[in-house]
Amino acid sequence: MKFLHAADIHLDSPLAGLMARAEPLRDDLRACTRRAFAAMIDLAIAEDVAFVIIAGDLYDGDWKDFSTGLFFAEQMKRLAPRPCFLLRGNHDAQSLITKRLPAPPNVREFSSRRCETFRLPELGVALHGHSFPDRAVPEDLSKDYPDPVPGLLNIGVLHTSGDDPGEHATYAPCTPQALRDKGYDYWALGHIHLRQVLHERPWIVFPGNLQGRHARETGAKGCTLVTVEDGAITAVEHRSVDCLRWVSLSVDASGADEATLIARTGAAVSAALAAAEGRALLARVTIAGETPLHALLPDRHDDIAAWCASAAIEAEGSLWLEKIKLQTRPPRTMDAGALAPLRAAFLTALEDEALRRELLEELGSVRARVPAPGRATLDWPDDVLKLARLADEAWDAVEAAIAQERG
């Protein structure tokens, strides 16, 4: 027997932050979450799974129109007669989705009032889950999950931030140790968009989202295929179903003239396409290093985009740009040691909390004057820690300005 575990599908959620050059991809961009979900259903059918689990955030929020729900119903008809066990998360909590359609016959939704158990005695499986009633769920829902059903493979389905201290908001927090202590064989988690296996035997798995939606969600995306033999889990495998893949490309411009930089950019694009399993790429390109081209590159974004597009054509792949980031600096015109005292004073000054707050306020004021379309694509420090991480980059800018002035 096999089953499929997915989460964080965010049907019809748009991709964020693409440059205008992605215009030819517009139809694909609008449909990519649907295409990834349809590919997941294709996988479920091809692997002849016994059932599918969706551990929260099937939807990105309230539907704009009924086409979102109708698409899900169409895919469930393809999946039938296999059941789909659906849990609501913070994005599609019971109170957030106002439009309604009759649930497809093979969809079994976990209650949002209490933890509910579905038993499949013919498969030797029991599934336990508690949907989110509202977007904000600050309590540990797993505490109220029941004891495992004796003699069955017990699966806990939970939308949770776990004990993750990262960028995801805290919802239904819990610890891996508490989940292990529950005595289940498998925890099908959702909410964290990066695939993570928190524990093996018992398995505690975040499958990640089906389709990356912005530049921080790089790499292969998909779901988890679980194989069960004689009542025990024997294999837990990631399967990619994304149709577009986000990548972060770094190009070293150190000492490069234009021909060298074009070649290095092309090599980075080719390598990324070769690793993309036939997917089109959505790329953030960062060019860094000490180069005589430093002063020219800010006015040559169109050229850099064309170098990337040309390399993609040569590699027989497709690539669109989310952003081009320039972190170059001019060749040094003086001994770095001569600037060491000034650099030390610069970095020491940035440790002053009052100065950091003042800089954040000033940056916020500048950001507010940037037109909305451009503002959305800025990597803007919005807290003291992010500002501090920019210290080395800020010093590079200061040193470049000094070098230019001396020149």
Automatic annotation (TrEMBL):
Gene3D superfamilies: 3.60.21.10
Record-level Gene Ontology MF annotations: exonuclease activity
InterPro entries named in the record: Calcineurin-like_PHP, DNA_Repair-Maintenance_Comp, Metallo-depent_PP-like, Mre11_N, Pesterase_YhaO
Domain Calcineurin-like phosphoesterase, first and last residues per copy: 1-193
Pfam families: Metallophos
SUPFAM superfamilies in UniProt: Metallo-dependent phosphatases
Membrane-spanning residues: none
CDD domains on file: MPP_Mre11_N
Keyword tags: Exonuclease, Hydrolase, Nuclease
Entry-linked PANTHER family: COMPONENT OF ATP-DEPENDENT DSDNA EXONUCLEASE, PHOSPHOESTERASE
Protein name, entry field: DNA repair exonuclease
Lineage, highest ranks first: Bacteria, Pseudomonadati, Pseudomonadota, Alphaproteobacteria, Acetobacterales
